[in-house]
Amino acid sequence: MIIYHNPSCSKSRCALAYLKDKNTPFEVRTYLTEPFSKEEFLALLSKLNVPVLAIVRKNELAFKSLLKGKDLSEDEIIDILLENPKLIERPIVEWGANAVVARPLENLIAELEK
């Protein structure tokens, strides 16, 4: 299990604490300092099974300047996210063939209980 984590995000810290409390073995990847390769990101998107715009942080200033109101292909959006990882929703937890945006934490809890 991997948690894609941003230490400055309270929701990300909450998911990390939940996994620790459950004694779930996991590794932490601070994706702002350990960026995704395009292949890794595409694999993660496939596991999330959502369109790329579903994991974009739309309240970020970079969203408004780089993405909002623009007619971009999914590939162009992915490239922008890879260049601007702060735009990626967090935290994301990945295990096996599964992944979930753990915001709110209940999303993670529900997926792990399946």
Brief characterization of the structure:
With 114 residues, the chain is α+β, with helices and mostly antiparallel strands.
Report the count of strand segments.
4
Structural class: alpha+beta
| H/E element sequence | EHEHHHEEH
Helix content: 40-55%
Rg calc: 14 Å
Q: Can you summarize the main beta sheet? A: 4 strands, mixed
Poorly predicted tracts of residues: none
Word description of this protein:
A four-stranded mixed sheet has the order 2-1-3-4, sandwiched between helices. It is an alpha+beta fold and 114 residues long. The protein has a single domain, classed as Glutaredoxin, CATH 3.40.30.10. It contains five helices and four strands; from the N terminus they run E-H-E-H-H-H-E-E-H. It is globular and about 45 Å long. It is 41% helix and 14% strand.
